[in-house]
Design a protein that fits this description.
The chain is an alpha/beta fold. The chain has a single domain, classed as Oxidized Rhodanese, domain 1. It contains five helices and five strands; from the N terminus they run E-H-E-H-E-H-E-H-E-H. It has a five-stranded parallel sheet. Strand 2, helix 2 and strand 3 form a beta-alpha-beta unit. The termini are far apart.
């Protein structure tokens, strides 16, 4: 499974790269802040909502610390998606949140 650091994600966003970020935290966690442009699909619903995702795109999976997003990335990878896990999760994020 591929990984990407929070700093690398921040730099890609600063460089105006179009990223497809999936935040797998629960709604109450996302209420504390989400990376601008990220889509929230809680891990508990990912299996049921993965049809919303385009397999031709690359996704960066985010959670609080990197553990849940790691599980989500493994699951999506197994389903044929191109994914990277953002290591350290939102605890490592130093960029803007909305």
């Amino acid at each position: 499974m591929r990984t990407i650091t929070a700093q690398e994600v921040k730099q890609l966003l600063a460089d105006k790269q179009q990223l497809h970020l999936i935040d797998v935290r629960e709604a109450d966690e996302v209420a504390t802040g989400i990376i601008p442009g990220a889509q929230n699909i809680p891990l508990s619903l990912l299996e049921f909502r993965m049809h919303e995702l385009d397999k031709s795109q690359e996704f960066i999976i985010v959670c609080r610390s990197g553990a849940r997003s790691g599980r989500a990335a493994e699951f999506l990878d197994y389903q044929g998606f191109h994914v990277s896990n953002m290591t350290g999760g939102m605890l490592a994020w130093e960029g803007e949140v909305e």
